[in-house]
């Protein structure tokens, strides 16, 4: 345990380190697979979902910040693997979409003041993840990437206005054009409840 680190912080750090290692192992197995690319991709997506389900032990109503770390690691890890995943695997874009939408729901639960280091890590990770996934033709992280580059989820005037049942300002249309979401009206489930539909 690092100096000045609480037991809860230590547990979170070790869990995140374990997640990162498991995702790295999944990607290594994917690259080394001797079977068909489609079968390897299907297996990767199934195993990835299992890891995410196991990571769903944190309660968002108690403390959503550890889950933000989980999604940061998970989304970037999946994006790094997209170059090795088969374009014929329908689960790839589906899982990317579920990751993005579940992460957006989580962002809406965050306190207004997120630790700077945590938010900066999230920003840089989402920017890289979006870039990597775009290289393979996947655009599901576009809206999340746009939101991440704000000073926080509530820094976007359009989103705040709509969630407050107001009308968005016309000069913020770019956010909605790029996000590819239809709001309000979509129902986003937390990842650990939604993954079993794949």
How would you portray this structure in words?
By secondary structure, this protein is mostly helical. It has one domain. Helices cover about 65% and strands about 0% of the residues. It is built from nine helices and no strands. Helix 3 (about 65-80) packs parallel to helix 5 (about 115-135). The chain starts with 6 loop residues before the first helix and ends with a helix.
Show the helix and strand layout:
Layout: H1 7-32, H2 37-54, H3 65-81, H4 91-109, H5 116-135, H6 142-148, H7 157-163, H8 173-179, H9 191-194
Helix pairs in contact: 1-2, 1-3, 3-4, 3-5, 5-6, 6-8
**Count of distinct strands:** 0
Number of helices: 9
Flag low-confidence runs. Answer: 170-198
- Give the total of domains: 1
What percentage of residues falls in helices of 4 or more residues? 55-70%
Secondary-structure content class: mainly alpha
Strand content: under 5%
What's the SSE pattern?
Answer: HHHHHHHHH
Features:
zinc ion binding; DNA binding; single chain; GH-ZnFinger_Regulators; 198 residues; 63% helix; 9 helices; DNA-binding transcription factor activity, RNA polymerase II-specific; globular; mainly alpha; 0% strand; Zinc finger protein 292a; disordered C terminus
Offer a concise description of the structure:
With 198 residues, the chain is mostly helical.
């Amino acid at each position: 345990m690092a100096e000045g680190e609480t037991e809860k912080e230590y547990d979170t750090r070790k869990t995140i380190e374990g997640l990162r290692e498991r995702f790295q192992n999944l990607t290594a197995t994917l690259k080394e697979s001797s079977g068909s690319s489609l079968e390897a991709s299907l297996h990767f997506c199934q195993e990835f979902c299992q890891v995410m389900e196991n990571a769903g032990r944190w309660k968002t109503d108690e403390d959503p910040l550890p889950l933000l770390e989980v999604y940061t690691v998970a989304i970037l890890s999946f994006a790094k693997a997209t170059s090795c995943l088969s374009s014929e695997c329908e689960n790839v874009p589906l899982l990317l979409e579920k990751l993005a939408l579940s992460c957006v729901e989580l962002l809406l639960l965050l306190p207004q003041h997120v630790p700077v280091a945590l938010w900066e890590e999230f920003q840089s990770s989402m920017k890289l993840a979006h870039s990597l996934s775009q290289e393979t033709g996947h655009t599901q992280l576009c809206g999340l990437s746009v939101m991440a580059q704000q000073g926080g989820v509530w820094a976007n005037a359009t989103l705040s206005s709509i969630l407050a049942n107001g009308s968005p300002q016309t000069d913020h249309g770019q956010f909605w054009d790029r996000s590819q979401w239809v709001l309000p009206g979509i129902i986003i489930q937390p990842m650990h409840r939604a993954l079993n539909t794949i």
